[in-house]
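Reminder to self: tokens first, then the designed residues, so the page reads top to bottom the way the pipeline ran.
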């Protein structure tokens, strides 16, 4: 009986300690962008996008096409979400996660006639590095133009204003 209890205890300890991460941050690494698109006069181009509530998020129902490419995947279809304020779509919300590594670049290919006024593919690329066991965004580009964060990722997302000349 004592031998069985000892084996049980040792098995439990091995299972418990095998889950330790030796001081490394456990995955996943999360990447969140909150993008506001405006025209040159300051009009929010995300306003007016049609959406429907899906549990705790708001999924775009207007015509769009979104694909994501990263270190480990190529052209994976994604769902486009918006952040809603005062019953209006205000920001596009892009999310991605990786396990065991930080992706150096994540590229979203977006076709959205409501925002861009055309059916062309627009490229949004975010550049990342690992810092303090987290994924930290270095910069964001849209169609090869750099844009600055208006707010760094806190508990929410990296917020960026993208001004389009349409």
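Designed residues (166 positions):
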């Amino acid at each position: 009986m004592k031998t069985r209890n000892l084996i049980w205890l040792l098995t439990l300890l091995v299972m418990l300690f095998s889950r330790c991460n030796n001081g490394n941050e456990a995955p996943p690494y999360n990447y969140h962008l909150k993008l506001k698109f405006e025209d040159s006069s300051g009009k929010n181009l995300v306003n007016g996008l049609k959406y429907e509530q899906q549990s705790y998020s708001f999924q775009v129902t207007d015509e769009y096409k979104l694909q994501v490419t990263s270190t480990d995947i190529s052209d994976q279809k994604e769902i486009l979400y918006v952040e809603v304020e005062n019953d209006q779509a205000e920001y596009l919300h892009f999310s991605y996660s990786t396990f065991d590594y930080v992706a150096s670049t994540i590229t979203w290919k977006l076709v959205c006639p409501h925002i861009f006024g055309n059916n062309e593919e627009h490229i949004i690329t975010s550049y990342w590095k690992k810092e303090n066991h987290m994924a930290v965004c270095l910069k964001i580009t849209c169609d090869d133009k750099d844009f600055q964060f208006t707010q760094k990722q806190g508990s929410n997302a990296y917020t960026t204003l993208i001004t389009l000349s349409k």
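The longest strand covers residues 29-39.
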